[in-house]
Amino acid sequence: MLQMRLTVTLLLLLLVIRCVAQEEGQSKGCVCGYPGIPGDPGHNGMPGRDGRDGLTGEKGDQVGPAGSTGKDGIKGDKGETGAVGSVGPKGKRGDNGERGPPGKMGPQGVQGPLGLKGDKGELGLPGPRGPKGEVGPLGPKGFKGEVGPRGDRGIQGPIGSPGRPGPKGDIGVPGHKGNIGYRGERGQRGEIGEKGQKGDTVVVPKSAFSVGLTEYTKLPATNAPIRFDKIIYNEQNHYDPQTGRFTCSVAGAYFFTYHITVFSKNVKVALMKNGAKIIHTTDNYQSSEDQAAGGAVLQLEAGDKVWLQVAGGEFYNGLFADEDDDTTFSGFLIFGT
């Protein structure tokens, strides 16, 4: 193997010398003949020194063909960290990770200055009707019945015995009519009669209520009793907040009145008695907040029902209530019959 390398090296040197000679001859104007037959190779020279201790030559221009893959060498030492490469294209967004545990509560910040009062927001749509609640507890004890008829008057005691008469005088001559005489002595008091039976105690009938709307019952539905769920007074429980109706328990004359805060829509309400419309109240909304009111005296019998309801459709149910504005409905017995 070493001999073959030496031979190839000698041939290359001969070719180089020849090319140099041709170039010099051409430059001097001489004509060179055809090359002669190569001579026999010379004897093998002495092997040169190991070139490992020589200087490293410059890198050649031509790249030789890739040799066959060598065997895996020994793993070298870790090289130095290379320069930072250019930023690559933005990758696709990864999937959202799982939500981490909540962090610890931070310290309370300094309280900021009181902000200005914001504008009033637009009126939201009425929420969906909630599910039917469970049956409530047993109601309070009923009211005392009506006053019964008055009892008969007791028997009058006997008249007392008359006083003792004086002696009878002689009949005299009729004289002239004299003046009115003095009043005679009062007779003795008669015996006390038997005590009559005790009559029933007179009970004054009572019936009154006063209720209002809240933020949850404002803008009520149309063509149905308005459920006033803010109880101001209802000691006799004659008003039912679940149905919005007042039920008469004592026959008589009653006074009903209502006060309405109007906002964002027109208002048209009717005072109802047993399904019949008694009076109407209408207010066309202009701006800000309007006020409307109404009232009437009604003759009711026991069992009659009275309520207030929207009478003009969805564009006339602008009954409003909040912390600063109220819509109320009240009634009370004036006198029983």
From TrEMBL:
Residues 202-337 form the C1q domain. Keywords: Collagen, Extracellular matrix, Secreted, Signal. Residues 49-61, 143-153, 183-198 have a biased composition (Basic and acidic residues). Residues 38-199 are annotated as: Disordered. PROSITE patterns: C1Q. Residues 1-21 form the signal peptide. The keyword Hydrolase does not apply. GO terms for cellular component: collagen trimer. InterPro entries: C1q_dom, Collagen, Collagen/C1q_domain, Tumour_necrosis_fac-like_dom. Its main location: secreted. It comes from the Eukaryota. It is found in: Secreted, Extracellular space, Extracellular matrix. PANTHER family: COMPLEMENT C1Q AND TUMOR NECROSIS FACTOR-RELATED PROTEIN 9A, EMILIN ELASTIN MICROFIBRIL INTERFACE-LOCATED PROTEIN ELASTIN MICROFIBRIL INTERFACER. This is C1q and TNF related 9. It comes from Myripristis murdjan. The lineage of its organism: Eukaryota, Metazoa, Chordata, Craniata, Vertebrata. The gene is C1QTNF9B.
